[in-house]
Specification:
Oligomer: single chain
Order of helices and strands: EHHEH
Strand content: under 5%
Length: 89
């Protein structure tokens, strides 16, 4: 899967509509191999993005956990630190 896909579940505040749509768009791009679809494929591409986003919304709503919600800033700092270790400056 895409290395840069981000976890959306169990954050405070919860994932926004934009974050869900962006993740859905990235997923459909990966599946289709199109960064930007042709005019002939545009409707199918957009429909797929909307369907994936709808499924993601349902999933986010129905998942349960006993873990404390994660903090976006703390998680971003961890990701930056891991990137520095992996790639250097």
């Amino acid at each position: 899967m895409c290395r840069n896909m981000k976890t959306l579940f169990n954050f405070e505040p919860p994932a926004s509509e934009l974050e869900i749509r962006d993740a859905s768009l990235q997923f459909v791009r990966k599946l289709s191999g199109f960064n930007v679809p042709s005019k002939a494929n545009e409707a199918a591409f957009e429909r797929a993005v909307e369907e994936v986003a709808a499924s993601a919304r349902v999933l986010m709503r129905e998942l349960v956990t006993n873990a404390e919600p994660r903090n976006r800033e703390v998680e971003a700092a961890k990701a930056r630190a891991a990137s520095m270790i992996r790639f250097g400056r």
